[in-house]
Every structure is written in structure tokens, then in C-alpha cells.
Amino acid sequence: MDHRQHSASFNIADFLQSKFHPTFTPNRKKLTLKVDTRGYQPEELTVRLLDDNLLVQGKKASSSSKISDSKQFSQSIRLPDGIDKCNVTSQVMDDGMLFIEIPLINSSMYR
């Protein structure tokens, strides 16, 4: 994909106001995203990169002798240029929030 075309279609204002609550670390070395995953166990969550998009999905099922129940969600966000897609990390915190950290390759783009 042409780099200029990708940059032109990315809207930083929409990105910063998304439900992923994106923030940059003070030294601009990482992008941090957080997703409310309360009610899901870590093994019920998947975090994937698909092209320029980050996809977070959760799926859980429970059943008893009389009732079967399932719940799921899927959220995605287009990521900006200048990120290190090979070193994405994620962690579910005790409060149920999923934190995703993505190192920035070219941090000067976000100053």
C-alpha cells in the first residue's frame, strides 16, 4: 500500500477520541490503548493485528442444566503509521481493563 495513501486516510482526531482511549507515553516511545473487558477472563480474549487495524474480541459461554448463555464483543481501531507491529503486548489488569502497548518506530511523528 502506498504510504501517502495510508496517511491521508488516517484521522488522528478520530483515533484519539475512540473508545480505545489511546495515549502516548510521555517520552513518545509507546502507544497505549485500553479496552474495558470486565466480565471476561484473559483466555476468553483475543488481540490481533489485521493489516493496519487492531482487533480485540471477547467470547464467553456458560451453561447450566436449564440455561445456556453466551456473550461476545468485537472492537477494532485503525492504527497510525510508525508503529512496531511485531512487538505488540497486551495484559488484562485486576480491574478487568485490557492494556495494549505498541512501540513507536518513528516517535517524532507524534510530537
UniProtKB/TrEMBL annotation:
Biological process terms from the Gene Ontology for this record are: protein refolding; response to heat
**What InterPro entries does the record tag this protein with?**
A-crystallin/Hsp20_dom, Alpha-crystallin/sHSP_animal, HSP20-like_chaperone
Any Gene Ontology CC annotation: nucleus
- Membrane-spanning ranges: none
Pfam family name, one: HSP20
Highest taxon of the lineage: Eukaryota
All copies of domain SHSP, residue ranges: 11-111
Q: Can you provide one Gene Ontology molecular function annotated for this UniProt record?
A: unfolded protein binding
Q: What PANTHER family is this protein classified in?
A: HEAT SHOCK PROTEIN HSP-12.2-RELATED, RE23625P
* Family, as annotated: Belongs to the small heat shock protein (HSP20) family.
What is this protein called in UniProt? SHSP domain-containing protein
Can you name the source organism? Answer: Adineta ricciae (Rotifer)
